[in-house]
Amino acid sequence: MEYCKRIWPQIFPSLAALTAATLPPQVGRVVIITGSPARIGLALTRMYYDAGATSYMAARNESKAHAAIHAIMTTSTSKLPRTIKLLAIDLSNLRTVKAFVAAFLSQESRLDLCHNNAGVACMPLSQRTVQGLQPHMDTNCVGPYLLTSLLSDILVGPAATSDTAPHSVRVIWSSSLLVDTSAPSEGVPPDELENPSDDAIRNYTISKAGKWFLADRFAKHFHARDGPASEKRVVSITANPAAVHTGIYDNAPMIAIWLTTPFFATVEDGAHTLPWAAFSKDIAVRDGGRYVIPFGQWHPNPRGDLLDAMTDRNDGLGGTNYAKGLEAWAERATRDFR
């Protein structure tokens, strides 16, 4: 029964709370979206562009990104002032992250929203990134960790100003239904950080649990920083957009795609989850670390073992904060790229 309570509303979600048609104007707001030239990232970028935001398409494939920008600009009917720009980044190569941030900081003095949307799945077991890391953990966790770390000051600064609405500066980490169905009880087993499984789906699932863990760790850090009242701090949460057949499954077995396709949402519907996470007035700093599910609602029944894995215990009962362990490992992995 508990399993059904977790899974059912994600496979058969309620109607979207925010859509492209109902998204309020975002003129003056600055947004970064990773993985934005295709599928959910592209749909999200289009929504924000039409709403008047200054949108930065953070992408590895520059030719694909330029084509996406051209398509967005030539088909938009919005009359709002808006901007869309491309900045290159490859989250599987940590050396590109600092350069991306430097280029962004040379153009902007504020950042209102960062979508850690990019991801890979079902990568060959023999593949390693430029830094020799397992690609799921690097692209889905370590790269976004470094990016968010380097952007922290420009997120925190605008959040504290008088002209920024409380609770409105946010970091959104895209996760997956597999966190509920398949993640191990530790979420991110420490021994698999250096010695990943031979199962590509397990590695992907662990990396998506890791994104939730990192969302929680950043939420705690943002909330603990000295400065203004808590409502003027940065919100960091995770979101499962929906089960959508996106490009990250290009390496998945065809039988798996065939079996799961009937349960896939459309790209547009999946993209509607993320504006709720980004703009809903029902979300506050105190919600940091919480989990959003399709198509814009709080997870009704998160897994207790994963919540325990993110908990700092002061009750004398022991226990391990696996989220802290992941953060420490990611910090070591990114130390030379800051």
Automatic annotation (TrEMBL):
<dbReference type="GO" id="GO:0016491">
    <property type="term" value="F:oxidoreductase activity"/>
</dbReference>
<protein>
    <recommendedName>
        <fullName>Short-chain dehydrogenase</fullName>
    </recommendedName>
</protein>
<comment type="similarity">
    <text>Belongs to the short-chain dehydrogenases/reductases (SDR) family.</text>
</comment>
<dbReference type="InterPro" id="IPR002347">
    <property type="entry name" value="SDR_fam"/>
</dbReference>
<keyword id="KW-0521">NADP</keyword>
<dbReference type="InterPro" id="IPR036291">
    <property type="entry name" value="NAD(P)-bd_dom_sf"/>
</dbReference>
<dbReference type="Pfam" id="PF00106">
    <property type="entry name" value="adh_short"/>
</dbReference>
<keyword id="KW-0560">Oxidoreductase</keyword>
